Amino acid sequence: MKTVVFGPWIGELGWELTSWQGWIRNVCKNEYADHKVVIIGFSGRECLYPSDVTYISHPEWFQNIEYSNRAYASDFWTKDGPRIKKSKYVYEPLRPHAKRLLSNMSRQLNVPVEEFIVPWKPFVYQGKTFGGVTNNNRRSAAFHIPKPIPRRFQSLEEITPTEAHLSLLYKEMQGQGFDIDRKLVLFFPRGRRRDRARNWTVKYYHKLHKSLSQKFPDYLAAFAGSSEGSIIKGDLVPKGCLNLVEINRTDQMLNIHVAAMSRSAVAIGPASGILHVASYAGLPIVTTVGSKTHKKYPNRFTRDCNPFRIPSIVLPGDDVPLGHIRSAMYEAIQNADRN
Fold first, then answer.
1. Are residues 149 and 167 located together in one domain of the fold?
2. Which of 283, 274, 337, 284 lies closest to 314 in space, CA to CA?
């Protein structure tokens, strides 16, 4: 059997979710249906891909490189891809490290590979050129983003956890003293410094948890997200809540979060990329979006990054009252209970 390799993927999760994984699903069903498929990417993201492929995680040395693989519309991308920020005005290209990674992975496979499809290099599919980066001319000639793959070239399927991913979730739940059969309400307490006006206050989350436990006592509140990007962690996690921010298997974080999504009624939090993952996983969301952003991207959470049109409640405004968020949470849970 011939082998085709997709990767290494070195970019942020958002573009991997909305372009790369859907296109791979498409070509795996068609052009490469009779191939062994190998995907190389960040650890813990296997949930984005078909379960019958071979997934190889980046080695630790590469994942420890401190470059922004997340919000790279503003994080040092050039026509040659992302750069590593060494200090305030000093940058180092990432591509040599990516080439070393590709070379190492080629040797590690130890099988003849018919084709390597590398996302930072342009490639042609059905007469169209994808891959690499593009300049969208909105900011400057130096402003580049990854070149997206339109949905018509993708095969879209809801992201689902494997039994192994569910087992990891259940282990976290049991380790914290919770029954694995509990239904969840999933909070993503964004706490990043960039666009910090988007963040909700700690008090918002504590009051939402209190309201949830009083009105819907059968539901277990779960707080999830990366430790460095969450405003709720450590002692700030309310008692009686599932803590999926500080988990034992950080290398499996997204897989565990997708498993939690499959057990949840709704995902709640200010606008962030992980809520797009929730939409791709078939989970309704409740979110707030700043007035300026909502005017510019009015359909971002309801259509553009929600291909399955999962019911979502988007509250536009720069300072949305807690009462509005609470009411939206109630509505989403009631809808889930009816379904």
1. no
2. 284
Q: Which domain holds residue 265?
A: 163-338
Asked if 206 and 273 sit in the same domain, the reply is: yes
Q: With contact defined as beta carbons under 8 Å apart, do 3 and 114 qualify?
A: yes
Give pLDDT tens digits along the chain (339 positions): 899 999 888 877 888 999 999 999 999 999 999 999 999 998 999 999 998 999 999 998 888 776 654 433 344 555 555 666 666 556 666 777 888 888 888 888 888 888 889 887 888 899 988 887 776 555 555 556 677 899 999 999 999 999 999 999 999 999 999 999 999 999 999 998 778 888 999 999 999 999 999 999 999 999 999 888 899 999 999 999 999 999 988 889 999 999 999 999 999 999 998 999 999 999 999 999 999 999 999 999 999 999 999 999 999 999 999 999 999 999 999 999 988
Query: Which residue shows structure tokens 């509005």?
Result: 324
Half-sphere exposure of 99 (CA within 13 A, CB side): 7
